[in-house]
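Q: Transposase, please. Structure only.
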Amino acid sequence: MVMPVYTPALHRNNNMPRNELISRYFAQGYTNKEISQVLMAVHKISISISQIKRILRSLDLKRRKVNLPLPGIIGAIYKIIENSGQCLGYRAVWKRLTTEFGFFIPRKSVMELLRMIDPDGVTRRRKRRLIRRRYTTPGPNFVWHIDGYDKLKPFWVSNTWCN
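A: Structure for Transposase:
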């Protein structure tokens, strides 16, 4: 199990009820098995997956239920696209809708909405012709990219510093 870097519900808050912890982890996109493991590892609460399912059912939390009207979802997709999400595919947009906005919507619906909202972006991503960033900087070494892309690899320059 790989946990996100920052998970707000991970604070060891002994006053928080078990059901609220489960609903928070559910809203962050954890699976039922991951919720069970995190509750045991972090909060020392031993609970089975079937019990988590019963609690989620009693709280009326479902993964396949769209909980907000379509204009709200479309507005959230526009926010994602206009900010840093213009190069994201439908899976990453779906994940952001789930984790950041709390929308539970099928991935297929997100794919269809992206095709309607941003058809040019969909075709660019399909052809792998993405628009690269352009920078205007005040001087050298002002902006650095730390993305792990080794630009010197075609010239047989090793990126190892020590032997």
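A: Brief note, in case it's useful. The chain has a mean pLDDT of 77.
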